[in-house]
Amino acid sequence: MSNNIALSDILGMLHVSSKFTQVSVDLMTSKGNESSASAPEDQTQGETDESAAIALPADVAGSGTMDRLVDTARDYAQAAASDNTLKAYSKDWAHFTRWCRMKGAAPLPPAPELIGLYLADLAAGSRPLSVSTIDRRLSGLAWNTAQRGFTLDRKNRHIATVLAGIKRKHARPPVQKEAILAQDILAMVATLPQDLRGLRDRALLLIGYAGGLRRSEIVALDRHKGDTPDSGGWVEIMDGGALLTLNAKTGWREVEIGRGSSDFSCPVRALEQWLHFARIDFGPVFVRTARDGTRALDTRLNDKHVARLIKQTVEDAGLRPELSKADRAKLYSGHSLRAGLASSAEVDERYIQKQLGHASAEMTRRYQRRRDRFRVNLTKAAGL
Q1: Are 121 and 105 in contact (CB under 8 A)?
Q2: pTM: predicted TM-score of the whole model, two decimal places
Q3: pLDDT single digits (tens) 15-66
Q4: CA 93 vs CA 99, 102, 281, 319: distances in Å
Q5: Beta-bridge partner residues of 254
Q6: pLDDT tens digit sequence for 96-137
Q7: How many domains in the chain?
Q8: Which one of 56, 62, 228, 260 is at 20 to 30 Å from 24 when CA atoms are compared?
Q9: Do 130 and 222 fall within a single domain?
Q10: For residue 109, is the peptide bond before it cis, meaning its omega torsion is within 30 degrees of 0?
């Protein structure tokens, strides 16, 4: 039997089985909405808000207290992952359900054969994705199906063997972003204007570098604990430096940022100047400024600003002049700050691991681009 026939057979069986599963899918995704019969096609395929999957059991009568508990539980479920992760998962699910409609198959329950075909299409389609993106897509599907009361078994042979083959055939060495070293960050902040916006961006870059922070962690900082509902942490300024308390990917952690050797390079001094001249004593630390750059606004900065700022200051500082502008833009990102701290700090590895919030030393070593390169020469040690 040819591969084409086998593929059509699988899709045909899945299409037929969808008639029997559609009722349960509609009940799961409509979340008690009595108008589910007239719901858009996207909703009947399971494309609904994940937090809405939490509802009262069918045999429990609704009341003001119980309804409030449902809302509270939904809020907690929404906070189970970061906003960026939830957005990515939502896009993953939308893409998968759209693909299913085009193939005439139902996305729920998640048939392993169908998932395997979907992964194969992602790897060999008209716009093939990288292995890491495909792996991330699969994680997104597993999360979304779990939110809808189903289980996606990644170890099933129809999924595991296809994914293993994709990795074996298409895997490429990881592309690491360039580390921003100490002399680089100083050259970058020197390009900033001497106005309020320049003070903000100077503090942002130096704090991000000295703290080894993710760009999302930088913009999520508040001035004090509990200032805003969307806070990702807060700052305490002390005589010895700044203490950041962060609620990050690996949980809560404290990051100590000591004072620098000069006012020009000191991240804490830069932060103090920004807070003082921007008159920020409550709410987000890093906010937007007015167009004329004379006053701070109340709106928290988006983490994309950090990425744009790094690329722009790298360009203005003339780093890696042998590269084209496009290649430089690809080489540097928000992670360049974290990699720079790990590569520049001549301290014990465990301190860097703690600062970056890594669960393992191996992850920290991936960031230490240049510091340890050829530090141990096994060639000479072997007698050559």
Answers
A1: no
A2: 0.63
A3: 444 444 443 444 334 433 433 333 333 343 444 444 556 777 777 777 778 8
A4: 10, 14, 41, 40
A5: 245
A6: 999 999 999 999 888 999 999 999 999 988 888 888 889 999
A7: 2
A8: 62
A9: no
A10: yes
| DSSP one-letter code for 307 | H
Instruction: Give the DSSP H or E segment for 101.
Output: helix 83-103
Residues 259/167, Cβ–Cβ less than 8 Å = no
Neighbours of 47 (CB within 10 A): 18
- When computed from its CA atoms, the radius of gyration of the chain, rounded to whole angstroms, is 25
- Please, are residues 177 and 343 in contact by the beta-carbon 8 Å criterion? no
Q: Is residue 217 part of a domain?
A: yes
Which of 124, 145, 170 lies at the terminal end of a domain, its last residue?
A: 170
Nearest to 281 by CA among 337, 237, 347: 237
Give the helix/strand (H/E) hosting 64. helix 64-78
Distance of CA 361 to the CA centre of its chain: 21
Question: Which residue shows structure tokens 């004329």?
Answer: 292
Q: Is residue 376 part of a domain?
A: no
Beta bridge partners of 257: 242
Domain span at residue 307 reads 182-367
Contact 110, 141 (CB under 8 A): yes
